[in-house]
């Protein structure tokens, strides 16, 4: 039953990644984001069971002592079968964790599933704690968090400390996802400094670098013509950052959005100006996926090549998607993370 | 015109009803055997799978409360939060139905029903859903959960979400936690986080499962052989019918029937026969399987405590494949005849040339083909790899040997004829040679049937011997017990020492040897081991030397993967290198195994205290010791009476063996039938050859007697050839196909008495087949014999 369970569970709500697929259902009884109500912290770090889907997403660009670049993913998804919470197995909330480590040579990934209501997985706002099984992201406050996950062939244990403020995407956290107005709440903490240990098949590696945290929740469908999304989080040398995504449509130009984040955390939204164009494809699991992109944001004179550190960063879960570290060259230099869904 | 042509074609069968009967019966029997074997195979396998799948019984390790009783939800969450990949299970009875609750998000794959239309939201929320077979769902008392029919659930069992099961059974805790095979790095030991829980390793049942897989594969190969035997019969009947109809065909073509239409009509005719015979065959196979299956079902019920429907489900795939193979087989058997018809010159001699009297050229062609096929078989045996090569070797070898049979028999008879003294003997040998082409197809069928029987009975008996030996080896102790912690282990061991004949500690540690994952086991010196363990290769007195610490014992899997032979060093630690003293068969175990002495085990892994023990004691004392152990505080669930498990396992296999024995008799009967049909067909044709001998003074009775002798003689010669062929077949099944499919070789044992008995059966079958034609000959009116001289043919 398991594989199918996953598909079924995931269809109404996978990720950032699956944000796209997750948004693809009717709102039916679930709460909807309201542009007049901005997220409030620390409460909104926690779970929103009235919304259909939600995710807490960490991606990190790390470096080993010998200069080897690494990428890391830690994700907790919540998918609700009904807009309420209850204790015990009666809870309609289900949880899904994805974790991955990407090296230039390999991509290790694994997942966890859990029922809500019994304490096996959940998120508490303050002091912040998000967990599924032994995986956790927790700390005394949201600026100082420990991050850990383990799989059959890898594990990691990191500590993250914020060096800048939270940033709210779209209109103060109200992030529109299509021309028809579908939206989510979406904020990030892109300024985490990270250090810790990766346990890989070849042994333990001390790493340091930076991480990007996203928290997004919603209930609303995307337009049924939207087939997938490409999401970029780019950290440039000099401290500026760019988050941009485009939702691909089968018969029209997709919806795109970008947040320009200045080194001090000031965010400028751009609707429809962000451009990403595939330059090179790789075949993974029989699927053609772009692994090098030309990314432009003319208003900020950004014209860069974004190249996968390891083209094989394919999370062969259900549904499968691509998520991995990238390097940036061109008008700006730096590192970042790329996520691509809907290439099945 | 079509109708007229069809009537003309069909009129042949009206004149030769025996041929029609041979054709239909041969095809029906072949299809029947094939589909019978398939049905038994499929049903038995499905039953094992279903029984094993519900709960993954045996396949996965389980965590249970050490002192018996329930596991609390909090304990489950504690284990999950510590990284243990476990999934809760609760089960109980509701209105006579076994209700199993699983947690679908965490259950390892393959547990519970897998249905295409599963709706996870409906399964997890509200009143929930209950999956089961229709009859099990009906037997459930009124419940609020939605009932969903899922035919792949074990009989008498329904599966639901764990929360629904807890509610329906009015329970709060779980019976067990199933441990997923893959666990994350760095999780703490069970006793650190949940000292009240105990880990139970997977049951030996999973190893048995791998053995049965091998058995079923071999049974499938056997089904295919049965079908080949039948096809030989059909080939003979179709070929004969075509030859006999040559004048009719020539006449029709001369009258203007287009060749294309003629061929099309003959193909349609054959298709009709194939469908009729195929339907009969599928029915036959179904009857056969239905007769043999209830035994298997009864045993499975005993083994798994789960009800397995003894009745057979008529799966569409199954009867369609039966029909399909009948049509394909007919096409294969008739292909050559149709080809010849299509190429027949319009004005070819219309003379009635008995097809059976094949000419020398076709004999040479056949000999050549036989040589090529045997060459291919030898090549595949030497250089082939994998399952396909194994089956290719099987096919090429068998067909090659069958084709070579007439050539070999002909040569043998030629030698006999040269050695013969006296006119009667010379005539007998010469006449036998002359008759050989007509009988060769039937003899080929006999050869294949006998070879298949020898091969399969060798395989089955070797399998049984290996399996029994393996069970004896692994399950020798009368009782197995499992203690919850180190203290209890020491206390129980001390308690038992004076009370039983031997206490054999069991412990296993996962480690690495030569870069491969292996389980390190320990053995305490005891007569149990030398008495029961059989080695594939071993030094002299391996257990004595093992006890003296001179070396280690490894399983076949490790030996194969690491390329270890006797005496080769095995590195177990930085300073511990010991030679291999013996290599043992370890059927079904996916990983390598190294057995060391208790002392060395303690030295290498001082932290591991054996908690499982095998107890050797007088079987009569089992109940008393059991009671004493329970009184000492060991829960019932921690004591296993392995003798019972062993008995059950053996019963399953004994019944399956009985099934193959029955099939053996049937194939021989089919071959005997082929001989009978050939002899009957030949009888009419042979009259001109027999009449002069009769006219020279040999009585009809004497002639009939000689006919009998001839049939038995040919059968005996065929049997002689079948023996090496059958042994080769068994060798391929055990040493090539099995290794390719499962990675280990089944040892081959020889059973001369079985072969002798089989040879005798073959002679009896041939004699019986020759009896009727012989009686008919003895009763032929002299007028008919005289008529040979009176008429122009």
TrEMBL record, chain A:
Residues 1-17 form the signal peptide. Residues 53-219 form the AttH domain. GO terms for molecular function: hydrolase activity. SUPFAM superfamilies: AttH-like. Pfam families: CrtC (PF07143), Lipocalin_9 (PF17186). The keyword Cell membrane does not apply. Keywords: Hydrolase, Signal. This is Hydroxyneurosporene synthase (CrtC). It comes from Limimaricola soesokkakensis.
UniProtKB/TrEMBL annotation, chain B:
It comes from the Bacteria. Keywords: Cell membrane, Membrane, Transmembrane, Transmembrane helix. InterPro entries: ABC3_permease_C, MacB_PCD, Membrane_comp_ABC_pdt. The keyword Transmembrane helix applies. GO terms for cellular component: plasma membrane. It is a multi-pass membrane protein. It is found in: Cell membrane. Its main location: membrane. The chain crosses the membrane at residues 219-242, 262-289, 317-342, 363-383, 389-415, 436-456, 657-687, 708-735, 755-775. Residues 221-345, 663-782 form the ABC3 transporter permease C-terminal domain. This is FtsX-like permease family protein. It comes from Limimaricola soesokkakensis.
